[in-house]
Design goal:
mainly alpha; disordered N terminus; 5 helices; globular; about 130 residues; homodimer; DNA-binding
Chain lengths: ~130, ~130
DNA sequence: CGGAATCCCAAAAGATACTG
DNA sequence: CAGTATCTTTTGGGATTCCG
């Protein structure tokens, strides 16, 4: 993999800074696998985005996220709470009102959601154009 | 939602450009759901990254992606081919050799993988620190 | 309204073995 | 090497009901 005089260094792609060492490759790949581990499934990021868009009540979130059932939403909210992406607040009104709120830590996901949103937009256009 | 003199504009978060209209919120959320639809599961992005890191043969990919079984890898590769992220090339050597290669379109995922990688790295550190 | 509980099914994924 | 076949387990998620 080292550059030999007069021989072009192989260009792997337009992607990362470089292929770098095999070790760094594995690290990078492992990081993505780590990320996908906590963000698994099709609901977690959409829920976080819904909360960011202003939803806070269970029903609001359910309406915002296309197609999720209460059963699944309930479970996902617990997951997100465990991973410290949201907090669940109970207000002693009558009847009690419950609000979900993003934590500061969830803000670190900004780059991820932004990248996914941008990619999703152009991907959708591409699909529509093809048909 | 417009700024009134002397009254702070409500800040929803440190995220997107703005909450904007409910319509735009839904669009943004839908875009992410679109993206997650084709990138679903824990394997697709890691496989793409492995390919980008230089792997091209079935066995290489399997070794690069931590924990994937041949059965699942086979299925995921077909999915990725269908979605035009990779191409499968058969070379008439003896025995035949088969190579998987990223398409140009897969390069559009660069932003997504980079964001996930960066987030994954700091998330891992956070978890390790907490324990 | 905001869930929890239960039941159930289908799809996804893992383990292992095997083949051209 | 590049998968397939088979089997088992796990997960996701729909439907429905119930509760405070």
């Amino acid at each position: 993999m080292s550059t030999v005089d007069g021989i072009e260094e192989p260009v792997f792609s337009a992607w990362g800074p470089k292929p770098a060492s095999a070790h760094e490759c594995n690290q990078s790949l492992q990081a993505v696998q780590d990320a996908l581990y906590v963000l698994n499934g099709k609901w977690k990021l959409p829920i976080i985005i819904a909360l960011d868009n202003g939803a806070s009540r269970f029903g609001e979130i359910q309406r915002a996220v296309n197609g999720i059932t209460p059963r699944v939403l309930s479970k996902e909210l617990k997951d997100l709470e465990m991973n410290e992406f949201i907090v669940r607040r109970v207000y002693p009104t009558t009847p009690v009102s419950i609000e979900y709120e993003l934590t500061d830590y969830s803000a670190t996901l900004q780059g991820v959601t932004e990248a996914l949103r941008n990619w999703g937009i152009q991907h959708r256009e591409r699909i529509l154009k093809r048909n």
